[in-house]
Design goal:
The complex is a heterodimer of chains A (395) and B (226). Chain A is α+β, with helices and mostly antiparallel strands and 395 residues long. Chain A has 13 helices and twelve strands.
Chain lengths: 395, 226
């Protein structure tokens, strides 16, 4: 059985269709703003998480410059030496230890000049964390290039690159592309290979020096569950007297980044929420107008024995109907607009249909309905507390 | 309690506190109305007729004195109890009909039944009352603004009667009708009185008052004839 007060509310909404529609549009915009922003943020988090979790089993070790000192004179070094490397290897057990040289340089491909990172690696370490998409591993002066450099400079296997600043008086070393790496995106292990040239470590030390001096050492643990023990073992062995290396792992970076993205998501959702506040004011206004226009009707209802709670219910139903209309339309539009926004901003919709992303649609809808009902509380209360005599007299 | 008349006013005073000063609309009114009475309340403008009507209809409570209806002291009742009494004991017939504009004629008559029984009428009672006052099923489906004044007043009478109230309170029931339709409405009210209802009519019109068994005249908030 349909509640007669619900029927009265439906008829009132229908009677003032345009006004009700305009009020609901406010809710639609609010729901779309909250849902789309929430979905965008979540898709961003999921995308970053996916990229970073590929290297979640990596411990990164860098020199702790600030605290390295011996005796009276401070020794400042920003590299990890071979003795420390041996300590790291000793503490790491069966896990892979990858020493890395790193600098940045200019380079030229034909007439085109560019700038990028150069990583010096033992060729045997490459397959441990990098994937060669095209060509083969490096050797001698044959190098690997990242996906972004390859695409920007149209590099293929066999292309040559001149390394160093373009200068007429100096002969620059020339390397040949042996292979092109698969795109990595944001690398949690600190090796941002997409915009880099990977050279063999002996070629690197021949040209840049730094033999037995490494800029970074990565430990790739075989069992991710043992990462904390391995970190502790390295810390105990290497940093036994003073902090020599700074230890960080991908998972802690991952949690920091996802937490930051979570905060950003909440922030942009709050901005979306402002539109709901505006919608709430609009609903409140429409409800107050409805009450004012129906004063005499309220007087009739109260005088012939309608309870105050029933009059309240009638107006709350009206707010609920406006909220449900706004929320349903907003939910459908959130799906379409959210999909477009995610596609445009992130470049992929592979995470869009995941529950963590889609849940923002019902969230937005529920918030929209609640905002509507809350906006209707005062008008409903005002209607139910009218003096029936005054209400009947009003024209 | 059984000795009490259906309505008893004892020294009832109603004072309005206005910015210009207090205004006494009813001044120590003492009055009994028995069950199955047919009473006309008359008086010039400002004599207190409307205030009296509001008191008898339990839309308001006295400032002082005691008003009892069907054995209950109105001032001692809660707001909800007064609402239920308006719903169950009193049937209102207004000069301007006061039908609910969003409901059809049938739904207007069904409405008090829904208020009382919290469900839609499946007994045919609402339809029977509409038929009894001369509203056919086609007209029953119309909204109030699609009906003539006389038809609207008939619907209002059916609505007032549907919960079988003891008292029919009529405020200028023919005031907005032509004389022929007004006559028909008065015939219906007389018939209801014959069937046992207590009918109270507030009116300016002596011809309408002549239908009543008894006339109560008010002047300056006091009863000058009863």
């Amino acid at each position: 059985m349909r509640d007669i007060f619900f029927d009265l509310s439906v008829r009132s909404v229908r009677l003032n269709f345009l006004r009700s529609l305009l009020a609901s549009i406010g809710i639609v915009i609010g729901v779309v703003a909250i849902s789309s922003m929430g979905m965008l943020g979540t898709n961003m988090q999921l995308s970053v998480k996916d990229q970073l979790s590929a290297n979640v089993n990596t411990i990164m070790l860098t020199s702790d410059v600030v605290k390295t000192s011996t005796g009276l004179g401070a020794v400042s070094s920003n590299t990890i030496d071979s003795s420390t490397l041996n300590d790291i290897k000793g503490a790491s057990g069966q896990n892979d230890v990858v020493p890395i040289h790193h600098t940045s340089t200019q380079f030229s491909v034909g007439d085109q000049n560019g700038r990028g990172s150069i990583y010096g690696l033992d060729p045997d370490d490459v397959p441990k964390f990098l994937t060669i998409e095209d060509g083969s591993n490096m050797r001698g002066s044959d190098v690997l290039v990242g996906a972004t450099i390859a695409s920007n400079f149209n590099l293929v296997v066999g292309s040559t690159i001149k390394i160093g600043q373009n200068c007429a008086t100096v002969t620059r070393p020339v390397v040949r592309v042996a292979g092109i790496l698969q795109a990595r995106g944001i690398a949690a292990d600190g090796v941002n290979a997409d915009n880099a040239i990977i050279v063999p470590d002996d070629w690197y030390t021949n040209h840049y020096g730094g033999l037995d001096q490494y800029d970074q050492v990565n430990v790739i643990v075989q069992d991710v569950d043992t990462i904390n023990q391995t970190e502790a073992a390295i810390d105990k062995k290497v940093n036994r007297n003073t902090d020599v290396v700074r230890i960080s792992d991908a998972s802690s970076r991952l949690s920091t980044i996802t937490s930051t993205l979570g905060t950003i998501t909440t922030f942009i959702m709050a901005i979306g929420g402002i539109s709901l506040v505006v919608a709430a004011v609009s609903i409140f206004n429409v409800m107050m107008m409805s009450v004012k226009e129906r004063v005499q009707e309220i007087g009739i209802l109260l005088s012939i024995g309608t309870e105050k709670s029933e009059v309240r219910r009638m107006f709350l139903y009206e707010a609920l109907i406006l909220g449900i209309i706004g929320a349903v339309v907003g939910g459908i539009m959130s799906f379409v607009i959210g999909y477009s926004v995610v596609n445009a901003m992130i470049g992929t919709t592979q995470y869009f249909f995941q529950p963590a992303s889609l849940i923002y649609i019902p969230y937005g809808m529920v918030i929209g309905v609640v905002v509507c009902v809350v906006s209707g509380l005062y008008p409903a209360w005002a209607a139910s507390n009218m003096d029936p005599i005054d209400a009947l007299r009003s024209e | 309690m059984s000795d009490l008349p259906l309505i008893r006013l004892t020294e009832v005073t109603k004072t309005y506190h206005l910015e210009s000063g207090d205004f006494t609309a009813l001044d120590h009114v003492t009055l009994d109305i028995a069950e199955n009475d047919f009473v006309a309340i008359m008086g010039p403008s400002g004599s207190g007729k409307s205030t009296m009507m509001n008191q008898l209809g339990i839309l308001d409570v006295p400032t002082s004195g005691e008003l009892s209806i069907a054995g209950e002291n109105v001032a001692k009742m809660s707001s909800l109890e007064r609402t239920h009494m308006r719903r169950d004991i009193i049937g209102y017939i207004f000069q301007k009909f006061y039908l609910i504009p969003l409901l059809s004629a049938y739904e207007n008559v069904e409405y008090p039944l829904i208020l009382k029984y919290k469900k839609r009428d499946t007994t045919g009672r609402a339809a029977d009352f509409l038929t009894a006052v001369g509203i056919d099923p086609v007209m029953s489906a119309h909204r109030p603004n699609q009906l003539s004044g006389g038809q609207q007043q008939r619907v209002a009478i059916a609505r007032a009667l549907v919960n079988d109230p003891k008292i029919l309170l009529c405020d200028e029931p023919t005031g907005n009708l032509d004389s022929k339709t007004g006559l028909q409405i008065m015939e219906i009210l007389c018939d209801l009185h014959r069937k046992g209802k207590t009918v109270i009519i507030v009116t300016h019109d002596q011809k309408i008052a002549d239908y009543a068994q008894r006339t109560i005249r008010l002047a300056d908030g006091r009863v000058v004839e009863s």
